[in-house]
Amino acid sequence: MLMVEEGYDIAIIGSGIVGLFISYMLCGMHRKRLKTICIDKEHSVALHASGRNSGVIHSGIHAKPGTLKARLCVKGNRMMYSILDALKIPYRRDGMLIVCTDDNRDALEELQRRGYANGVANIRFVYGDEVRRMERYAKADTALLVESAGVTDSSRLAYALYEHARAYGIEFIFNSAVVRIDEVLNGYRIEMVEDDGEDAKESSKSKTITARLVVNSAGTHADDIAILAGLRKYRIYPCIGEYYLIRRKPYLVNSLIYPAPTFDYRGIGIHLTKRLDGTIAIGPNAIYVDEKDEDNAKVKDVVDKSIDEFYSRASEMIDGISKDDLEYGYYGIRARLAGYGSKEEPDFVIEEHPTNFIHLIGIESPGFTASPAIAEHLTGMIRDRL
Ligand SMILES: Cc1cc2nc3c(=O)[nH]c(=O)nc-3n(C[C@H](O)[C@H](O)[C@H](O)COP(=O)(O)OP(=O)(O)OC[C@H]3O[C@@H](n4cnc5c(N)ncnc54)[C@H](O)[C@@H]3O)c2cc1C
Fold first, then answer.
1. Residue nearest to atom 44 of ligand 1 (CA)
2. Which of 215, 234, 239 shows the shortest CA–CA distance to 223?
3. How far is the CA of 14 from the centre of ligand 1 (A)?
């Protein structure tokens, strides 16, 4: 048993995109001698939702006005492009087309209203030839175009943030699962179990650190970390989202083609994303499971069973595909704060409990887009407290 206890000003639990953006934005503060550590149970960064999503930079039109999701997504969208420029990460910003596939014009008008209420610029209806000039294979005569949406590679961005933060002296510790938290004088003691892989039982060691302020950005496990800190009112309902890919007909989609939403929290629907590498991703679906990690055997048993659903959703939106074009892609697990059948979409939770322990819970889509704005909000809270 290795017992080393090092003291930090700030400990961030989770090196997904949210923890990484917070680390990135703390670089300036770190220089002013705030010693910071980012802890992850995995061997590297962004191995869960942050590296397994659509990579879509959302505009903020889907979120309910007045929510944190709406505010942080719209702000995150603007911040994201300038940070991608600064870090020289490629992206496309050629907008999202939301198509009327079943005369669902009311839903598009509601989206447009939400967009205006959320402060999203450049939303307009496009018709006929204009739709076809943008997306030749789209099966729609009417679509809502949102120009500020785009796509990037979330894993690549995550790694760039990590490298930047590390270069500025933020410490990272991997293979270390946080298992216990105690309040101590002037902060928290955090106990981690170090898991070096292979034979976990043989090689696991425990390590403790202390920190004056802790951020919980543990994704699907954020509710478990909250319980360790005495905050018991939240529960994450893990929900798988899978993707199929089309590699051999990249010309079928130019940008982002989405269905009209149903506003009932079944998700914003299986959509088509032209990724930066030219492949077309179809997804994600939504399957509730009990397990929270993608490499869990029970999760692996559930996936790759529903090609028909993907084929049929994609062929409602575009012409030119056959089922043989689809190959299985990948999946990620959403950190949902509401279970199967729930019709209310919960908001992001940013809550302090106890003092100087800040929890980020339910950061599901558009959490990737919102992450720079979440991080800016968090660094403001940290500045006020330390
Ligand atoms: C299928 C899918 C598609 C999506 N598409 C989009 C999209 O197109 N656009 C968009 O804006 N958003 C999208 N999202 C949402 C977005 O991916 C998430 O909101 C975002 O990645 C959440 O980041 P995070 O850092 O909070 O969580 P995560 O990426 O899950 O990171 C949490 C980290 O905490 C670590 N951790 C957990 N427990 C512990 C512990 N006990 N000790 C130490 N470390 C721990 C984990 O190992 C992990 O690295 C999608 C999500 C999914 C699942």
1. 40
2. 234
3. 9
Q: Whose alpha carbon is nearest atom 30 of ligand 1?
A: 219
- N- to C-terminal Cα distance for the chain? 33
Determine which of 35-49, 70-84, 173-187, 333-347 has the lowest per-residue pLDDT on average: 333-347
> Helix, strand or coil for residue 139?
coil
15 lines ligand 1 (CB under 6 A): yes
Average pLDDT over residues 347-366: 98
List, in sequence order, every residue forming a beta bridge with 214; answer none if it has no partner: 11, 357
Domains present along the chain, CATH in parentheses:
5-50+156-235+345-385 (3.50.50.60), 93-150+237-336 (3.30.9.10)
The pLDDT tens digits for 277-335 are 999 999 999 999 999 999 999 999 999 989 999 999 999 999 999 999 999 999 999 99
Q: Which atom of ligand 1 is nearest to the CA of 366?
A: 11
**241 Cβ below 6 A of ligand 1:** yes
Ligand 1 site, residue 47, Cβ cutoff 6 A = yes
C-beta separation of 218 from 225 below 8 A: yes
* d(C-alpha 311, C-alpha 54), whole Å: 17
Distance 320 CA to ligand 1 centre (A): 33
